[in-house]
UniProtKB/TrEMBL annotation:
Keywords: Membrane, Transmembrane, Transmembrane helix. It comes from the Bacteria. Pfam families: TctB (PF07331). This is DUF1468 domain-containing protein. Residues 12-147 form the DUF1468 domain. InterPro entries: DUF1468. The keyword Acetylation does not apply. The chain crosses the membrane at residues 12-30, 36-57, 78-95, 123-143.
């Protein structure tokens, strides 16, 4: 194994730390009463990510040793589906700018179910309609959250 190679988890953990730093700076602009939960969430994820980073560094050290059986298999086949789901999620978030929660969520649900090869239109429609009704009743009616 190449002595310069670094395990892929190190890159992932470092990217997550950068995202957390960005989220932390965004949270600084929130009012104090509204920022408590985001700070707790960022701190909790940061602590868990520290464990990931420590494990990733130990994997890198083990990978560099000659008798190591740690592999670093990153290729298109292993990341294709997660990247496609990520891209679908980005499109879903962008749809919020142009539509409301129910329109974008309905499109997202149908797209994901077709992506995962759910072939029955009855299942797709029933799942989507039940999801929309439950969210509407729970959030719009009971909690008065403006999702429309």
């Amino acid at each position: 194994m190449n002595s310069k190679s670094i395990h892929q988890d190190v890159y992932i953990s470092a990217a997550l730390f950068m995202i957390l730093a960005l989220l932390f700076t965004i949270t600084l602009k929130l009012p104090e009463s509204s920022s408590i939960f985001p700070y707790m969430l960022i701190g909790g994820i940061g602590i868990l990510n520290m464990f990931v980073m420590v494990k990733a560094i130990s994997k890198t050290k083990a990978m560099r040793s000659s008798e190591s059986n740690v592999t670093n298999p990153i290729n298109w086949e292993s990341i294709k589906i997660p990247l496609l789901i990520f891209l679908m999620t980005v499109v879903y978030i962008v749809l919020f700018r142009f539509t409301n929660f129910f329109v974008s969520s309905t499109i997202f649900l149908i797209t994901l179910m077709k992506f995962y090869k759910v072939t029955s239109w009855k299942v797709i429609l029933l799942t989507t309609v039940v999801f929309d009704i439950v969210i509407y009743v729970g959030f719009v009616r009971f909690l008065n959250v403006p999702l429309i």
